[in-house]
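note to self: the first set is below, dont mix up w the second
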Amino acid sequence: MQDTRPELARPIDGRWIAGVCAGLAVHLGVDVRLVRVGAILLALSGIGILAYLLLWIFVPSAPARG
């Protein structure tokens, strides 16, 4: 069985800061608002900030559509 999930990448369109939450939402197939709320809650605990920064560094930007 083949995984049909989109590749994890930070999109150029729909970014608020770096596109981490938007990219995770597309990859996981969930609403971006849900991922953003989760990221905010995790940031309040401290671990979310580190996770966001690591994803920003290691997840590539999606190629521009055009």
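second set (the one i keep forgetting abt)
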Amino acid sequence: MVRRVFYSFHYEPDSWRAGQVRGMGVIEGNAPVSDNDWEAVTRGGDAAIQEWIEEQMSGKSCVVVLIGTNTASRKWVKYEIRKAWHEGKGVLGVYVHNLKDSNGNQAAKGANPFDAVPREGTNMMLSSVVEAYDPPFTISKYVYNYIKENLADWVERAIARRAAL
């Protein structure tokens, strides 16, 4: 079964890294949005952004949060995580800080965004039940290959785990 996922990430610093993950072709994901399109959406305010997220998440079975340096602090990433969890979708994180950006630079590892999102009906954070995978390499091509080799399995695990809770 081909899974369709929604990729959540901090747009400005990590869009190049997100493009690498999307381009792996392992999982069908939401289409990349151009800078101009995203600016048009954001000019519409919070309601327009929520509507865009709703449209993009529709029909997806899992949300993959691509974790960069400041991803955990982003308002819309937290919103996407809460929305996905509330809708019963699988949720997982993948650290992408060691993938090179368009300038050939890597970034500092960011915090786990699931540490900042409470699990509904409990006093626990989602990090207690949602996996955040950190590739055990620092060389970008090894990080890329590790993600490519494992992403489909991680998505299946996240969907199964969510269904069991």
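remember for set 2: The mean pLDDT is 93.
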